[in-house]
Design goal:
heterotrimer; A alpha+beta; B alpha+beta; C alpha+beta; A: alpha+beta; five-stranded mixed sheet; 16% strand; B: alpha+beta; Alpha-D-Glucose-1,6-Bisphosphate, Chain A, domain 4; seven-stranded antiparallel sheet; 4 helices; 7 strands; 53% strand; globular
Chain lengths: 159, 147, 291
């Protein structure tokens, strides 16, 4: 059995220090070691997108990374979107436009959209469709998700 | 999946027949074969270590030669299992004289199951065919070593 | 499932990595983007005893232009290739091909080196590098060597890398000014593995003649392949509709397609024909549009 490693990871602005086995997946580290259960484990092979977080500012599948790789890195999870208890505009938009039902894919949708809107603040609907194609949703049929992201874009542009 | 192929060997039919029934040579040609033992005449036990990319597995298997009609044809059945999955198959190998050489024709069916068949489904067919090609190619090398 | 327990090393130089590969040989796997390796480990299909995390070898992450070539470090992320102004200007077919790889989060981590060494013939990078005649620079204990695509890609998921060698760089020639290009692929959904992928380069003369044609196909053989007969048909010619149809048919003949859940062997072969034609149409219309 491999030795545990000491890692220092900043998650949502908070510095954490923990010991992990090298084989510990980042998503399991976030959920089980840090108790940040907003990120979900779906397929464990990178297809469903429900594990999506931001790793050093870029969206990444946390089920395809090991916690040891996050040593010295900055991670943002869905828990990092709201500020001082106030929902992020993307979260507000999802709430208003019914962008979620069971909520399993939602953190993936939110984190993927967060990065997408940073790169594309004024997207077309076609571009939004494409941007969420990496997160699978079994409930909404995607229309409300697209409406939510479009609404979020409009709201954030206005600011 | 259905498999079939044809290979030419530069030797008389009897020599090629004997080669394809000799565990010492089969052992060298079967992909990743670490051990091949003839338990009883026509019944073989094999252990093979096969690896592609990161997917490595040790498979233990059994073959049986049935309905032999020396030196023209025999039926082969086999199965093997290992951590990534299992393989089951049967086929017919036919030998015929072709001028100074021998043509070997095989037709058969192979089923691959278990984890590798589900996850690796996209590549299974191609990889299985590639391994069989490799076997027949290595048998050519074994033939050369007889001379 | 969760991966097996393994020894973990994070070398900070290529020399260190090669040393570790020499020590552990085929017990070790290199962890770069992890987008192909970690799924295999999560399924427990692959259980490497040792993982060499090369993400710390920052020296391997670069895109440089020197003379008429682009030099790309093996650790360069696919997303960086997609967005690089240098790649978009000097070798746009590469940026286009990369944009078809999975989805953004996958491209954020996936690397060009990892994709090439994984050598899945359905992947976009092996196909486009085959079209570009890219040169792979590989480093091992006995030094470095350069490999052309036909020397590098052996068969499904297999390259000619020795167990103690590591891919460090890919060198591609920048495209001359009058180049028509396209990358097209057939997938059921955006982001899926290609059923068929076609990379097309046409080096054009001023008088409308195609001096040299290059057509590479993915998903239709154990490695990416060049449709040589189709290329010969088009090279030195003004490309007509009739030639495009013939090229498609020739290219289909060059394939060795296999069936799977998504497509039969016959369908793949026929789609090779169709997508070679589409690739040629797109390349020519983009070229004319640019004039």
């Amino acid at each position: 059995m491999a030795e545990r490693r000491r890692i220092m990871v900043k998650v949502n602005g908070v510095q954490y220090e923990r010991e992990v086995e090298p084989r510990r997946l980042l998503v399991d580290f976030l959920r089980d070691d840090l108790e940040l259960i907003g990120t979900h484990v779906g397929c464990e092979h990178g297809i469903c997108g429900s594990c999506t977080v931001l790793f050093n500012g870029r969206a990444a599948r946390s089920c395809l990374m090991f916690a040891v790789q996050a040593n010295g890195a900055e991670v943002m999870t869905v828990e990092g979107l709201a500020e001082d208890g106030k929902l992020h505009p993307i979260q507000e938009a999802f709430r208003e436009h019914h962008g979620l039902q069971c909520g399993f894919c939602t953190s993936g949708m939110l984190m993927a959209s967060y990065e997408f809107l940073q790169d594309n603040p004024d997207p077309t609907e076609e571009e939004v469709r494409r941007s969420i194609s990496g997160v699978l949703c079994r409930c909404t049929g995607y229309k409300q998700v697209i409406d939510s992201v479009m609404a979020a874009a409009a709201e954030m542009k206005g600011r | 999946m259905k498999l079939e192929g044809k290979y030419n060997y530069k030797a008389p039919q009897q020599v090629v027949w004997d080669l394809f029934n000799n565990p010492r040579h089969l052992e060298k040609a079967i992909p990743g074969c670490k051990k091949l033992e003839e338990r009883e005449p026509g019944k073989y036990d094999a252990i093979s270590k096969i690896g592609i990319a990161a997917v490595k597995g040790t498979y233990s298997g059994k073959f049986e030669v049935l309905d032999p009609e020396p030196p023209n044809r025999y039926r082969l059945i086999g199965e093997g299992s290992g951590t990534p999955g299992f393989v089951k198959g049967e086929g017919i190998i036919e030998f015929s004289q072709d001028g100074e050489g021998t043509t070997v024709v095989y037709t058969g069916e192979v089923q691959v199951g278990g984890l590798i068949a589900g996850v690796g489904q996209r590549l299974i067919s191609g990889i299985a065919k590639m391994m069989i090609k490799e076997f027949f190619r290595k048998m050519k090398k074994e033939l050369k070593s007889l001379k | 499932m969760k991966p097996n327990a393994f020894e973990y090393f994070a070398p900070s130089t290529v020399k260190e990595a090669v040393g570790l590969l020499e020590k552990y040989e085929d017990e070790a796997k290199i962890l770069a983007g992890g987008q192909s390796l970690v799924p295999i480990m999560n399924f427990r299909l692959g259980r490497p005893e040792v993982l060499l995390d090369i993400n710390g070898i920052k020296d391997l992450d670069y895109i440089k232009e020197e003379g008429e070539a682009l030099f790309i470090g093996a650790l360069t992320r696919e997303r960086d290739l997609e967005l690089s102004p240098l790649v978009k200007e000097k070798c746009p077919i590469l940026a286009e091909a990369v944009s078809f790889i999975g989805h953004v989060p996958i491209r954020n981590r996936g690397t060009i080196g990892g994709s090439l060494v994984h050598a899945d013939p359905s992947s976009e990078l092996p196909t486009v590098i085959c079209c570009l005649n890219g040169e792979m620079k590989v480093v091992g204990p006995s030094g470095e060597r350069a490999l052309a695509p036909e020397e590098f890609f052996l068969t499904y998921l297999t390259t000619s890398l020795e167990p103690s060698e590591i891919l460090v760089e890919v060198r591609i020639l920048t495209l001359p000014k009058n180049t028509a290009w396209s990358f097209v692929e057939l997938t059921r959904r955006s982001g899926d593995f290609a059923i068929v992928g076609v990379a097309t380069l046409l080096f054009m003369e001023d008088d409308g003649v195609c001096r040299e044609a290059r057509i590479a196909l993915g998903g239709v053989a154990p490695t990416p392949i060049r449709a040589e007969e189709a290329e010969e048909l088009l090279s030195g010619q003004v490309i007509t509709e009739e030639l495009i149809k013939k090229a498609g048919a020739e290219a289909a003949e060059a394939t060795e397609t296999e069936p799977d859940y998504h497509a039969s062997a016959e369908y793949r072969k026929d789609m090779a024909r169709v997508f070679v034609q589409r690739g040629l149409h797109e390349a020519l219309s983009r070229f004319k549009g640019g004039k």
